[in-house]
């Protein structure tokens, strides 16, 4: 039971006994004598939706979070009852609904309780605004841990914490500061090896208490709207995260260049400065694919305009940068300057596209351009208009991608930092105030941006980045963790936030490498790059008023370290792209915290630092100054040192060395890791071969490599190449089988296998059952060989 909500406490109300039960296909309705209706929808055998009405009236069934393409369907649904409860059975779960109290209990088919109501659903009537404060309290068994919840800058295990969701402009935020820029009301519970998830689909300010107020209770509640939540059962955490991710969606594949290294600053201008930065990258041989233009490219911070003094011919500049391998990404904010001579303002005003206050006047507030009005992106007509505004930018000028910022929306010089709560929104035909629309405002802005960019970059793929996000925003846009600070603590925060976002269905994420506010020293910058190249989105960005933050700004030693790590990222591009493919198609998070990787191992439940990059690379950043090494935990299995190829046993903590030019990176034994050559930008080099770094193991391990044209939509017509390598290692033999799917023909003809840890000397090599002459396939040493890319069976044996 939650009593201390912010509103004046009017008393909790509870459902009483059930007087009616009805079933309508996949929906079950339990109605209580005092007018509460619980609707349970069976979405899948292990996914249930719980939706409550009070006074017999449900809130409209509309959500921005849910992906229309979510795959649903169940096989078994049986409902029985006894004197005290209803029993609902699916292929994976049993649900009990108590007849006296409407409380629910979920167990697996063996009868082990997975999750049960404490007070269950209860509510307070909200006299000020109407509607209810809706609440749910669940039991917290001893030993239960909690994960997820978006961008919280706090320990990955949320047990004992209370957090809230209200997207907030949080310049120079700190550890444990809450809320930040994202609202993702989804958590994962883990107890005795079993994981489940709860997604509270409510866009009002939501609150989560993970056994903070009471050791035995976990609660979540919202300032309005309905108690409407989804329950996902594992028992594996991976099943839970994928089910949530399937429900709220994943992005399509980005163009491959979007996974390259990006450089940004507030702001690079004039044109000569932008060009100079681009040239420096090429001179220093540091790969880079994109350069960002922050607000100063605009004319007086008016969106969709150019400062013609600083950028006299943006079209020419962008095309010259493009010839040198750079994509140009520009910022667009939501605030439209109040200026009667400004066409975007005029159009929005004439068409009534701006948000209005409760009693009718336009909502206005101060942002970079001064006083602004704010388009109501929750109105589909406004989104269409906004999408069209990108036409000139993209089709005529050649801008490649768009960065949406300040879309909480951030409003300056007001204590709330955002729009007043009485501001009205269309909410796609369910009109409401900002209390309900606030958390989705930025999401709807970037959705409109995505639609526009997608339309005008076609036949290429769109790339968009947003600061504010609600659950489901990952379908439209990448994101970053906002205005962090150049401190060692923030390096820790970036690591936790990015892993947490990945667990919360949002993998395409990174931090401002080096810190946005203040300036890092060379050591911190190097350590941050070493982490950042293993984040799905990899961009250096800084506020600029604290000095330079380009890779060469900290002396040649640091420049060399940056180059070395950015080169590793570029070599691993096919691996990273395959991670993205698995995320996009199978809803698998791109980074996996250790607890996700091995939830059975309780050692992992409170670890924050180490993570798995993709499926097979274990990374552990160095997060302290002057470190020569650190202790790190190796999850179960065997791990090869990325640098020395030494093989170690997992399941324990170890001291690992890490001079400034390296961090601990380990590869899972049995993995086949694809590598491209270093290129200065994606597409610079024509691929002659694909390197497959192969790490021997006794046993079986499978690896995948996804490739396609790196941009465009041909892959949707089957023109992709998905290779599955099944490695089987024995004492005296190594077998690799290749299974290939898709009709894309890669430009290279050969694989270069570099085999590590082979416990025997190669005597014989057979490709598709035919012996090959060792001399002709060997290159660069005994355990390296060039093999035709179409092989299906590679069999290597000892003498
Ligand atoms: C906000 C953004 C930051 C940007 C700045 C100026 O603070 O978070 O990335 O540089 O605005 O546009």
TrEMBL record:
Mind listing the UniProt keywords for this protein, alphabetically? Glycosidase, Hydrolase
Q: Which residues form the Glycoside hydrolase family 31 TIM barrel domain?
A: 251-579
Query: Domain named Glycosyl hydrolase family 31 C-terminal: which ranges?
Result: 588-673
Checking SUPFAM superfamilies in the record gives:
(Trans)glycosidases, Galactose mutarotase-like, Glycosyl hydrolase domain
Glycoside hydrolase family 31 N-terminal domain ranges (all copies)? 38-209
A Pfam family annotated for this UniProt entry = Glyco_hydro_31_2nd
Q: Which CDD domains match?
A: GH31_glucosidase_II_MalA, GH31_N
Q: What is one process in the GO biological process aspect for this record?
A: carbohydrate metabolic process
DUF5110 domain ranges (all copies): 689-757
Alphabetically, the GO molecular function entries are: carbohydrate binding; hydrolase activity, hydrolyzing O-glycosyl compounds
| Protein origin, superkingdom | Bacteria
Family membership noted in the UniProt record: Belongs to the glycosyl hydrolase 31 family.
Which named protein is this?
Answer: DUF4968 domain-containing protein
Q: Which organism is it from?
A: Maribacter aurantiacus
């Amino acid at each position: 039971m939650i009593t201390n909500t912010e509103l004046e406490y009017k008393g909790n109300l509870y459902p009483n006994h059930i007087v009616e039960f009805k079933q309508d296909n996949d929906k079950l309705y339990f109605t209580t004598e005092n007018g509460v209706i619980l609707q349970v929808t069976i979405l899948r055998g292990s996914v249930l939706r719980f939706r409550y009405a009070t006074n017999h009236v449900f809130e409209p069934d509309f959500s921005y979070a849910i992906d229309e393409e979510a795959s649903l369907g169940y096989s078994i649904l049986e409902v029985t009852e006894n004197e005290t409860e209803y029993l609902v059975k699916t292929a994976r779960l049993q649900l009990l609904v108590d007849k006296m109290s409407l409380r629910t209990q979920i167990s697996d088919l063996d009868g082990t309780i997975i999750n049960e109501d404490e007070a269950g659903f209860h509510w307070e009537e909200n006299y000020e605004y109407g509607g209810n404060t809706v609440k749910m309290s669940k039991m917290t068994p001893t030993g239960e841990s909690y994960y997820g919840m978006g961008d919280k800058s706090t320990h990955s295990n949320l047990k004992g914490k209370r957090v809230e969701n209200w997207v907030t402009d949080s310049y120079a935020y700190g550890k444990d500061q809450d809320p930040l820029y994202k609202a993702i009301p989804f958590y994962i519970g883990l107890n005795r090896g079993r994981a489940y998830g709860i997604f509270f689909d409510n866009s009002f300010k939501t609150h989560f208490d993970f056994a903070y107020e009471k050791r035995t209770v976990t609660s979540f509640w919202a300032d309005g709207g309905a108690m409407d939540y989804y329950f996902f059962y594992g028992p594996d955490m991976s099943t839970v995260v994928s089910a949530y991710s399937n429900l709220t969606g994943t992005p399509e594949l980005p163009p491959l260049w979007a996974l390259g290294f990006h450089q940004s600053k507030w702001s690079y201008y004039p044109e000569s400065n932008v060009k100079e930065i681009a040239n420096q990258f090429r001179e220093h041989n540091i790969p880079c694919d994109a350069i960002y233009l922050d607000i100063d490219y605009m004319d007086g911070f008016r969106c969709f305009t150019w400062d013609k003094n600083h950028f006299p011919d943006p079209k020419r500049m962008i095309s010259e940068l493009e010839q040198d391998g750079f994509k140009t990404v520009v910022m667009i904010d939501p605030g439209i300057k109040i200026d009667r001579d400004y066409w975007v303002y005029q159009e929005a005003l004439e068409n009534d596209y701006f948000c209005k206050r409760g009693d009718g006047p336009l909502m206005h507030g101060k942002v970079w351009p001064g006083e602004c009005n704010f388009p109501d992106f929750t109105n589909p007509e406004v989104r269409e208009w906004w999408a069209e505004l990108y036409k000139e930018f993209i089709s005529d000028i050649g801008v490649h991608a768009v960065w949406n910022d300040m879309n909480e929306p951030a409003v300056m010089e007001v204590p709330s930092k955002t729009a007043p709560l009485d501001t009205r929104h269309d909410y796609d035909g369910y009109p409401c105030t900002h209390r309900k629309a606030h958390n989705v405002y930025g999401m709807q802005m970037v959705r409109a941006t995505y639609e526009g960019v997608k339309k005008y970059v076609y036949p290429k793929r769109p790339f968009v980045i947003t600061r504010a996000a609600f659950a489901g925003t990952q379908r439209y846009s990448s994101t970053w963790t906002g205005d962090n600070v150049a401190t060692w603590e923030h390096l820790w925060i970036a690591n936790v936030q990015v892993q947490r976002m990945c667990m919360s269905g949002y993998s395409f994420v990174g931090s401002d490498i080096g810190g946005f506010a203040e300036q890092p020293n060379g050591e911190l910058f190097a350590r941050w790059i070493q982490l950042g190249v293993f984040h799905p989105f990899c961009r250096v960005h800084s506020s600029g008023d604290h000095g330079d933050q380009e890779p060469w700004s900290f002396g040649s030693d640091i420049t060399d370290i940056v180059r070395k790590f950015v080169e590793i990222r570029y070599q691993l591009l096919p691996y990273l792209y395959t991670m993205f493919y698995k995320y996009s198609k199978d809803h698998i998070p791109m980074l996996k915290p250790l607890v996700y990787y091995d939830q059975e191992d309780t050692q992992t439940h409170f670890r924050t630092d180490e993570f798995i990059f993709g499926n097979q690379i274990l990374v552990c950043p160095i997060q302290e100054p002057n470190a020569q090494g650190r202790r790190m935990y190796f999850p179960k299995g065997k791990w090869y040192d990325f640098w020395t190829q030494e093989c170690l046993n997992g399941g324990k903590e170890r001291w690992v060395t890490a001079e400034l030019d390296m961090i601990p990176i380990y590869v899972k034994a049995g993995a086949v890791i694809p590598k491209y050559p270093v290129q200065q930008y994606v597409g610079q080099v024509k691929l002659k071969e694909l390197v497959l770094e192969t790490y021997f193991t006794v046993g079986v391990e499978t690896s995948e490599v996804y490739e396609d044209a790196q941009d465009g939509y041909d892959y949707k017509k089957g023109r992709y190449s998905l290779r599955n390598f099944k490695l089987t290692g024995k004492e005296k033999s190594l077998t690799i089988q290749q299974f290939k799917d898709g009709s894309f023909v890669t430009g290279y003809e050969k694989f270069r296998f570099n085999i590590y840890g082979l416990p025997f000397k190669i005597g014989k090599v057979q490709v598709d059952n035919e012996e090959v002459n060792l001399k002709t396939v060997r290159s660069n040493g005994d355990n390296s060989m060039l093999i035709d890319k179409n092989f299906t069976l590679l069999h290597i044996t000892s003498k």
